[in-house]
Design brief:
Elements lengths: L5 H10 L15 H9 L4 E9 L4 E6 L5 E5 L13 E5 L4 E4 L2 E4 L1 E2 L1
Antiparallel strand pairs: 1-2, 1-4, 2-3, 3-7, 4-5, 5-6
């Protein structure tokens, strides 16, 4: 039997990435985020992955103009976000689309 609090259990689940239940920016993507981003089609920006760090830092470069977009995700996604690959990001709702995957990211 575990004597950990619910907060401790949630934090430990978040550390494992796939089990994250936290819906703050950069953590688990919610259906609401996906729905809002889907409805606001003008908010999507195509970008090229520039750099991805093990701490979750992500640097994207806008397809048009090349301006940098900095984002963060709570887990290391170097397996998915390969430098040079094309992605789409919705800055307002913090959704990053990479192929069939959707990530909740903190943009800024």
């Amino acid at each position: 039997m575990s004597h950990r609090t619910r907060t401790q259990q949630a934090l430990e689940a978040c550390e494992h990435g796939a089990m994250c239940i936290d819906d703050r920016p950069g953590h688990a993507v919610t259906l609401m985020h996906l729905r809002l981003a889907h409805l606001d089609q003008d908010g999507w920006v195509d970008a090229v992955v520039g750099d991805v760090e093990g701490d979750g830092s992500i640097v994207l470069h806008r397809w048009s103009g090349g301006a940098a977009i900095r984002a963060w995700h709570h887990t290391d996604r170097r397996d998915l976000l390969v430098p040079g690959s094309v992605v789409s990001v919705h800055e307002r709702y913090g959704v990053l689309a990479a192929g069939a995957h959707r990530l909740n990211v903190a943009v800024g």
